[in-house]
Amino acid sequence: MTTLAERTRLITPPGTSKMRVLANELKAAGIHVVNFAAGELDFDTSPVVKTAAKAAIDAGRNTYTPTLGLASLRKAVAKRISARLGVDYAPGEVGLTAGAKQALYNAAMVLLNPGDEVIVPQPYWVTFPTQVEICGAIPVFVDTRDNGYRLLASSVERSLTPRTRAIIINSPNNPTGTLYEERELKKIARLAIAHNLWIIFDECYAELIRDGHQHGNIVQLCPEVKERTILVNSFSKSLALTGWRLGYVAAPEAVIKAMENLQGHTTSNPNSISQYAVEAALADDDTAFIDEVNRRLQARLLLAHELVTHMEGIVAAPAEGAFYLFLNIQSKIGRRFGDVVVRDVDHLCELLLSQARVAVVSGSAFGDASGIRVSYAISDDDIREGLTRMTEFFNSIH
Ligand SMILES: Cc1ncc(COP(=O)(O)O)c(C=O)c1O
């Protein structure tokens, strides 16, 4: 066989899918595995979305739409963003994509040159560094762990070089569930202006916020950065339709235009039926669905937190948004489970699956070998059963 392109060596499967696949295999073999590894809500999407999707199918909405989405939907999204941020966005500053993942990929492709450095806070969502590398650019990791998983502007500043071209910020954060502080985001905005940087601001979980917390958007906090910010968002999580593939980007018009050219040669428009369905949800403007999602996630988090307190030597990152609990398991590494020495976090996750029948995602997927990600977007019974099994497992490591 002739050889594959060099770049394929940069692209490995997302570490987040490994455990999901293993857990599903065990499940197919009839073994009850509690699966904390999914990156999506276990809720059905809203009835408004379903009705509108069915109507779009019945009306034969089968053809291509404009590359960056229906004009009416771009207008509705622009209106929604403008109202939320108190900063005006025109429809030409908005584009619809096949999920936030495509929005981020478009951003990397149209902003980065080979050799550019991109600041990526760590732990990070798996895809950020890979997309940067696909463009020939270099991820520069900024550790957030010493500061309780919250990004500090001073750490960003220390990592800047003349080659720094962009910073990727993800708040609420995957994998930690932590929200970055408004004060620090403002300082980072100032740094971006001073050093002429792009800001890629991924706020896919913006609507999934736990009680008593508030999500800060960098453009809202510092409108001067609008001209250098790519806001990335998605309906995947807020409307519980990960499989429908609809996300969006808001950025300066020249960036959006370049993305349109790129997307026109890659996927063309995102799924048309999803667009009609989400347009109906935006027009409906009812917060009942998201309120109910947040209410149930809040109750599940309380339950999970209470169970985690029984795990000896395990500490959770501040869980303020999204639906993840990120547990520091460092105290278990190098210790014994029976005759077996726990070598590292991947080994710990394998043991959790084989011994406790619990699937979680290893922190190594997120550039953090001291943590594991536990999604609490699963049923109360599974949370109770899974975390009880985990507690027994952790407490028998000595
Ligand atoms: C931080 C972050 N960004 C982007 C995405 C991709 O979302 P989408 O399904 O909209 O492509 C995810 C999905 O897990 C995510 O966690």
Automatic annotation (TrEMBL):
The keyword Lyase does not apply. Residues 32-389 form the Aminotransferase class I/classII large domain. One of its GO terms (biological process) is amino acid metabolic process. Its EC number is 2.6.1.-. It holds the Pfam family Aminotran_1_2. Keywords: Aminotransferase, Pyridoxal phosphate, Transferase. GO terms for molecular function: pyridoxal phosphate binding; transaminase activity. Its cofactor is pyridoxal 5'-phosphate. It comes from the Bacteria. Belongs to the class-I pyridoxal-phosphate-dependent aminotransferase family. This is Aminotransferase.
